[in-house]
Write a structure and sequence with these properties.
Number of domains: 2
Structural class: mainly alpha
CATH architecture of the largest domain: Alpha-Beta Complex
Mean pLDDT: 88
Order of helices and strands: HHHHHHHEEHEEHHHE
CATH class of the largest domain: Alpha Beta
Strand order of the largest sheet: 2-3-4
Number of strands: 5
Helix content: 40-55%
Low-confidence stretches: none
C-alpha cells in the first residue's frame, strides 16, 4: 500500500471512533489492536482539545469546562492541525463558533480577541516608535508622514463588548452574565513581552485603519469628518501603546 494511502487511512481511523484500527497497525500479537488504537485515538483528541484550552483560557472560563470541551471536540473533528507547532492550532476556532447554532455572538468575539492575543505574543520582534520620534519630525515633514505599524499590532472591530467582557473574565472567580451593550473597537499591542488590549476611543479604529492602509497623517485625519475627532489624542495614543514601529517622514512642503 502506498505510504500516502496508509497515512490517509490512519488519519481517517483516528477521526472516527466507530472505525476499526487500520490493517497496517499491529499490536503485540502482530494484528491490529482495537483497544490500544482507541487509547491512542483518545490521546490525540485530548491533546488537540488541550491546545484549544491553552489558546482560549478566558473563553473556556466563560463557557465552563464541559461546554467548552464539547465545542472543542466538534471543532477538532472538522479542523485538523496543519503544522506540528501546536500553538498555531485553532486559529479558525472563533469563526467556527460564530457559525454554531446557539452560540452567543459575544462568545465568538471573545475567542477572536484571544486568538489575536496569541498572534500578537508570537509576532516578530521590532522596536516601537516613541512620542519623542514624533516630536523630532520637522513640521514640514509631518503632514505627509506615514505610519509603519508594529508586527504585533492588531485592530479588531466587534459588534459586542468583547474586550470589556474579556477583561472582566480575567478574574478566575468571574461569574457575571454578559449584558447587552454597544460594540467595541480594540487595539492589541505588545510592548517587550507584555501583550496589551485597549478599547479604542470613538473614531480611533477608522483613523488607525486608514493609517494602516497607507494614508498619510493628514489624509487619515481629513477622512474622519467629525468635529469631535482629536487628531493629536489618537495619534499619540497609538504611539504610546506600542502600535507604531516607525514614523516615515513626508516630503517637505
Amino acid at each position: 500500500m502506498p505510504f500516502e494511502t496508509t497515512i490517509r487511512a490512519f488519519a481517517a481511523a483516528l477521526d472516527d471512533p466507530s472505525a476499526a484500527p487500520p490493517a497496517t497497525t499491529c499490536g503485540r500479537l502482530g494484528a491490529p489492536d482495537a483497544h490500544r488504537f482507541s487509547v491512542y485515538r483518545n490521546n490525540v483528541a485530548v491533546g488537540l482539545i488541550g491546545a484549544l484550552e491553552a489558546r482560549y483560557p478566558v473563553s473556556r472560563r466563560i463557557a465552563g469546562d464541559d461546554l467548552f470541551r464539547a465545542m472543542a471536540r466538534a471543532f477538532i473533528h472538522a479542523h485538523k492541525p496543519r503544522s506540528p507547532v501546536m500553538i498555531a492550532y485553532g486559529e479558525e476556532f472563533p469563526e467556527f463558533l460564530a457559525r454554531c447554532d446557539g452560540v452567543e455572538l459575544f462568545f465568538a468575539d471573545v475567542a477572536k480577541l484571544e486568538s489575536a492575543w496569541v498572534e500578537a505574543y508570537h509576532a516578530q520582534d521590532a522596536a516601537a516608535a516613541t512620542v519623542g520620534d514624533l516630536a523630532a519630525l520637522s513640521p514640514d515633514c509631518l503632514p505627509g508622514a506615514r505610519i509603519a505599524f508594529h508586527p504585533a499590532a492588531q485592530l479588531l472591530r466587534f459588534a459586542t463588548a468583547a474586550a470589556s467582557i474579556w477583561a472582566a473574565a480575567q478574574n478566575s472567580d468571574w461569574r457575571a452574565a454578559p449584558v447587552e451593550s454597544n460594540g467595541e473597537d480594540a487595539l492589541i499591542t505588545r510592548l517587550d513581552s507584555d501583550v496589551q488590549v485597549r478599547v479604542l476611543l470613538p473614531l480611533g479604529y477608522e483613523f488607525a485603519l486608514r493609517l494602516r492602509e497607507g494614508a498619510t497623517l493628514v489624509e487619515a485625519a481629513e477622512a474622519i469628518d467629525d468635529p469631535a475627532f482629536d487628531f493629536g489624542t489618537h495619534l499619540v495614543g497609538l504611539i504610546e501603546s506600542g502600535a507604531v514601529a516607525s514614523i516615515i517622514p513626508g516630503r517637505p512642503s
